[in-house]
Specification:
By secondary structure, the chain is mainly beta. The protein is built from one helix and seven strands. The strands form two sheets. Strands 3-2-1-4 form a four-stranded mixed sheet, with helices on one face.
């Protein structure tokens, strides 16, 4: 199953299969934390695709309006 997410400074929107949720970005300390909250203990997806508000350089992104650091690894 594929997890897709749109990560922004205000909200993080997630979809996995037919399940969707919008979480407050500021309520989570990292993208990993928000993903774990969304999954709620469910099995990890085989693929994760993230759209992030910020520049990506060398596979790494620090959000423009959110201090989350994301790495493609």
């Amino acid at each position: 199953m594929h997890l897709v997410a749109d990560i922004g400074g205000t909200h993080a929107r997630f979809r996995l299969g037919g399940r969707e949720a919008t979480l407050s970005s500021n309520a989570h300390r990292s993208a990993e934390d928000a993903i774990e909250t969304f999954l709620g203990g469910a099995a990890a997806p085989s693929v994760i695709v993230l759209a992030v508000a910020g520049p990506v350089q060398d596979g790494r992104c620090v959000g423009t309006n959110l201090p989350w650091s994301l790495d493609e690894r």
